[in-house]
């Protein structure tokens, strides 16, 4: 519940900026396509749960690739991808590098604890999930983004970065075009 509330806050700060929501497990799926209406996207957050995913797993690489396709379909040459994950593999690192090469920045918000927590898989079995900070930092570095651990400080940094950049242009201050 706390994670959902924090994500809702982040979405409120992005109001009017192109944003999408992708859920992933063994594959990635569009929950909400790119839209300036982040209030509408926030409605889908409450429906997210592991048991709605048709394929078990944690294929962060597929989530990054899927986000890139959404950005391309929306004609966004540049965009920010925020990956929420507890761990990632070398495929995710490679996907983040491809995203960076394509002009997108991949940042990572680490979820979980180093000592791990148990979760229930789709088949009912219990499995451990451990936060792998080093792997997530590699993904963020490959994606030209940054790694933040899920806490109040990270949320404050994300909310601050969600506001459009401001640039001076001689005639005053204007908002930079957000690429999604």
Describe this structure in words.
This protein has 180 residues and is an alpha/beta fold. The chain has helices at residues 2-13, 38-45, 60-73, 90-101, 133-142, 152-162; strands at 19-24, 28-35, 79-85, 104-110, 117-120, 126-129, 144-149, 166-168, 173-175. It is built from six helices and nine strands, in the order H-E-E-H-H-E-H-E-E-E-H-E-H-E-E. It has a three-stranded parallel beta sheet with strand order 3-4-7, with helices on one face. Strands 1-2 form a two-stranded antiparallel sheet. A two-stranded antiparallel ribbon has the order 5-6. Strand 1 (19-24) and strand 2 (28-35) form a beta hairpin.
Short descriptors:
single chain, 180 residues, alpha/beta, three-stranded parallel beta sheet, two-stranded antiparallel ribbon, 6 helices, 27% strand, globular, disordered C terminus
In short:
This protein is of the alpha/beta class.
Helix/strand-derived category reads alpha/beta
Radius of gyration: 16 Å
Low-pLDDT residue spans: 163-180
> What is the percent of helical residues?
25-40%
Secondary-structure blueprint of this entry?
Blueprint: H1 2-13, E1 19-24, E2 28-35, H2 38-45, H3 60-73, E3 79-85, H4 90-101, E4 104-110, E5 117-120, E6 126-129, H5 133-142, E7 144-149, H6 152-162, E8 166-168, E9 173-175
Parallel strand pairs: 3-4, 4-7
Antiparallel strand pairs: 1-2, 5-6, 8-9
Helix pairs in contact: 1-2, 1-6, 3-4, 4-5
């Amino acid at each position: 519940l706390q994670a959902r509330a924090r994500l809702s806050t982040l979405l409120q700060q992005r109001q009017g900026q192109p944003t999408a929501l992708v859920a992933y497990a063994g594959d990635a799926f569009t929950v909400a396509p790119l839209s300036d209406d982040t209030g509408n996207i926030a409605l889908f957050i409450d429906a997210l749960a592991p048991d709605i995913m048709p394929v078990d797993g944690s294929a962060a690489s597929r989530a990054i690739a899927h986000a890139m396709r959404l950005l391309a379909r929306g004609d966004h040459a540049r965009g920010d991808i925020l990956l929420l994950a507890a761990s990632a593999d070398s495929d995710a690192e490679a996907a983040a590098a491809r995203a960076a090469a394509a002009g997108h920045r991949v940042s990572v918000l680490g979820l979980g604890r180093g000592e791990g927590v148990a979760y229930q898989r789709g088949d009912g079995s219990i499995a451990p999930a451990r936060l792998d900070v080093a792997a997530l930092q590699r993904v963020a570095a490959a994606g030209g983004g940054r790694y933040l651990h899920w806490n109040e400080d990270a949320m404050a940094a994300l909310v601050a970065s969600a506001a459009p950049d401001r640039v001076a242009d001689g005639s005053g201050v204007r908002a930079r075009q957000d690429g999604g």
